[in-house]
Specification:
The chain is an alpha+beta fold and 765 residues long. Among the domains are: 5-92, 3-Layer(aba) Sandwich (Rossmann fold); 450-587, 60s Ribosomal Protein L30, Chain: A (2-Layer Sandwich); 590-765, Alpha-Beta Complex (Phosphoribosyl-aminoimidazole Synthetase, Chain A, domain 2). The protein contains 25 helices and 36 strands. A six-stranded mixed beta sheet has the order 25-26-27-30-28-29, with helices on one face. The protein is elongated and about 105 Å long.
Length: 765
């Protein structure tokens, strides 16, 4: 292979800067030309527009160019590949005909249909035919995505949220040109890019773009605000390549129109499997900036192999090598982007490239020896590191040094990654199984200290002690509960929303004694921190006093502990003990619980006080004040909703004397808490989807890699209390509860519980 190749990179964005940088590192590159280039790209700049085919041809002739790498889709659509191959220049990029995969959504969808590629249902309509498109939407009766059929710089896609928005989007798109309406898919989107030589193709790692302008994937679509690779997914790049890329390459080879260049498949990973969103005919932007950073092979060597149909033999001699690392890029956008963008603003502080961070220019120009903004996506800061967290740190560190008036960037690139990498609650530092085992190990020791007066011990929701001296009761029983708020306090302390933790601890304990039909008498609190802050203590204890007043009990006393060196500055922890009283013959659960009994679910308003070690990691990279769909309030508010007090909600039902048992859904969720009231031989069947899931849990479900069992053990998933009643009493009990409730399942017969775990007594279906 020659070592004196003259290479021309066509384009002027961040993608082309990344390509040019890889070319400049090649041992085969003698000269590097860029057209039109930008202020940061290496190589000789030539002032030729990407769609000016005649000028590009003349440039290649004049400069004796051997290899052209085309970056932007507009050049492909203009037929630049065809014109250059006509003068025997090697070109990395498909012909004008094949570029229709990107330039015509209609062509792309029809090909996918022909090749049986898993794709959304669609319909296409010619320019100006808005009424027909709107009529089709009415018959389709499912949410749609509105796409301009032609090129739109990555911004010709609208995802409307209502019928009105859908009609507006259709009329705006069809006024421009032919329009495609597609079934709106739900899932995680990934980018798969392959290098193709017309016969052979090889995939790069999966990447994930962030198309929306705002954190939490909110706001208008853009050309891409950042990306990372390798992206974490439920499948592999190899499997997706075999399903979506290889059939296309084979098809075009078979009909005599070989595809040479980069083929990009945007894929939605849905609950029903991967579905094709779109094809692009070039490296993505910003995907290229992170993917090329991971390729260790000589880039020009790869490009030449693709343009000479020798990729297979080249890879046999020198296999594709991908760094054992992660790369993450964040785009710095100009004021106003993606709408009307201000240009001409000076840029300063751009750091020099290092092995861990590189800044790629996009829309920049050199004016009077100063770098200024020249468009929307101005710079891409790419970090590289052994872990994604390292790469993210390096990228944002580089971005923080740059000054551009009015600029903005997303602060949550790769925010979905933590959820995709957590496959068990134990991996976050919380082991539910070990906690359950600990309870069983201490039972024997605790029971040695018991007397005949102890009615409920370890494993129940609260301890119960016979105290018949309470004369206002016929046979009074004291019921006690001690608990804490857990790692929710860290989130509360970090955000300054601490009063709610006082509500949390009291209401948790109220509910733990309520399940035994005990009513609260008094509460004792414990608060510990590194240093006492009078205002902080007053705020938290004030929350406790609020909750006690609402529950009809007295805040009798407590302890405030100052423990420097044990707690980090600003951190605190709280716990509490509540004592309630019940009549002995009215204690729950009753002895007549049996299979066939019905489970009535009472909704939670959030995670309450459980699962926060998982939630804090799941949402680690998204600003808490953001509001990603489907949330109806900022994320921080949804996470810090106070634990509900179910006493006023359930008092009427308890007064009916028809309730057999109550189950407070705390740590361990439905699977671990239901068995705590069930007799031998009885299990529970929970019908998932039988209650309306609060928006926060919908978002968690979208991001989570936990299986169903693990997810429902980690969080309450929208059910805070379960009421067990006989089938004949369902209507009466539901009517006595002061809010809407839901039939979520029933009790079922089990042949034996010997040797069974708690979780295998509860079936989630």
């Amino acid at each position: 292979m020659t070592h004196d190749v003259t290479v021309l990179v066509v384009g002027s964005g961040g993608r082309e800067h990344a390509i040019a940088s890889k070319v400049a590192q090649s041992q085969h590159c003698k000269r590097l030309l860029v057209a039109p280039g930008n202020a940061g790209m290496p190589g000789e700049r030539h002032n030729a527009a990407v769609t000016d085919v005649q000028a590009m041809v003349a440039l290649c002739k004049q400069q004796h160019v051997d290899l052209v790498i085309i970056g932007p889709e507009a050049a492909l659509d203009a037929g630049l590949t065809d014109a250059l191959r006509a003068i025997n220049v090697k070109v990395f990029g498909p012909t004008q005909q094949l570029a229709q995969l990107e330039s015509s959504k209609i062509f792309s969808r029809q090909l996918a249909q022909q090749l049986n590629l898993s794709s959304p249902h669609f319909a296409h309509f010619p320019k100006g035919n808005a009424d027909a498109a709107i009529a089709w939407c009415a018959t389709f009766d499912r949410p749609v995505v509105v796409k301009q059929s032609g090129l739109a710089g990555g911004k010709g896609v609208v995802v409307p949220e209502s019928i009105v928005e859908t009609h507006v989007a259709i009329r705006e798109a069809i006024a421009v040109g032919d329009t495609v309406l597609e079934e709106r898919l739900v899932g995680t989107e990934v980018s798969l890019i392959a290098l193709c030589d017309g016969i052979t193709s090889i995939h790069l790692p999966l990447a994930q773009d962030h198309k929306r302008v705002g954190e939490g994937d909110t706001g208008a679509n853009t050309g891409g605000m950042g990306a990372y690779a390798p992206a974490h997914a439920s499948t592999t790049a190899a499997a997706l390549h075999a399903e979506f890329i290889a059939p296309v390459i084979n098809h075009f080879a078979k009909i005599g129109t070989p595809y040479m260049g980069a083929l990009f498949a945007g894929i939605m990973l849905t609950a029903d499997g991967p579905r094709l969103l779109e094809f692009n005919c070039r490296f993505g932007d910003p995907e290229a900036q992170v993917l090329l950073a991971l390729i260790e092979n000589d880039f020009v060597e790869l490009m030449l192999a693709c343009t000479t149909s020798s990729l297979a033999s080249s890879l046999e001699a020198n296999p594709l090598r991908i760094k054992d690392a992660s790369a993450l890029g964040v785009v710095i956008a100009a004021d106003g982007y993606p709408h009307k963008t201000r240009t001409g603003d000076a840029i300063s502080g751009i750091p020099q490239s290092t092995p861990i961070a590189t800044v790629y220019h996009g829309a920049t120009e050199l004016v009077d020896n100063k770098i200024v903004s020249a468009g929307g996506r101005v710079l891409t800061c790419v970090g590289i590191g052994p872990t994604l967290e390292d790469a993210r740190t390096h990228a944002y560190a580089a971005a923080s040094r740059i000054t551009l008036r009015g600029s903005h960037m997303r602060r949550d690139i790769a925010w979905r990654a933590p959820g995709a990498t957590i496959h068990s609650y134990a991996s976050t530092g919380v082991n539910i199984d070990e906690g359950t085992r600990a309870v069983s190990l201490i039972k024997t020791s605790v029971e040695k200290t018991a007397s005949d007066l102890v009615l409920r011990g370890v494993g129940a929701f609260g301890g119960a002690l016979d105290v018949s001296f309470l004369k206002q009761f016929d046979h009074p029983v004291l019921v006690g509960s001690t608990d804490g708020v857990g790692t929710k306090v860290e989130l509360a302390a970090r955000t300054g929303r601490i009063r709610g933790t006082g509500h949390d601890i009291v209401n948790h304990c109220v509910n733990d004694v309520l399940v035994q039909r005990a009513y609260p008498l008094f509460f004792l609190d414990y608060l510990a921190s590194s240093h006492i802050d009078a205002e902080m203590v007053a705020e938290v204890v004030g929350g406790m006093a609020d909750a006690c007043a609402a529950a009809g009990c007295v805040l009798l006393g407590g302890e405030t502990a100052e423990m420097p060196g044990v707690y980090a500055p600003g951190a605190f922890d709280i716990a509490g003990t509540l004592v309630g009283v019940a009549e002995r013959d009215q204690l729950l659960p009753l002895q007549n619980i049996q299979d066939g009994d019905v489970l009535i679910g009472v909704l939670s308003n959030g995670p309450h006080t459980n699962g926060y070690s998982y939630l804090r990691k799941l949402f680690a990279w998204i600003p808490l004040e953001s509001q990603p769909a489907p949330l109806d309030k900022p994320l921080v508010e949804a996470l810090l909703m106070s634990h509900r007090n179910y006493l006023p909600v359930l008092k009427g039902a308890l007064d009916t004397e028809l309730v057999k048992a109550l189950v407070h859904i705390t740590g361990g969720g439905l699977p671990d808490n239901m068995p705590r009231v069930l007799p031998d031989g009885v299990g529970a069947k929970i019908n998932l989807g039988s209650w309306p899931m609060p928006p926060l849990f919908q978002l968690v479900q979208q991001l989570s890699a936990l299986d169903t069992e693990e997810l429902y053990r980690t969080l309450n998933m929208g059910i805070g209390m379960v009421v067990i009643v006989a089938p004949s009493d369902v209507s009466a009990v539901q009517s006595a509860i002061s809010e809407p409730t839901f039939i979520i399942g029933s009790l079922v017969h089990q042949t034996s519980n010997i040797g069974s775990t708690q979780t295998n007594r509860v079936l989630l279906s």
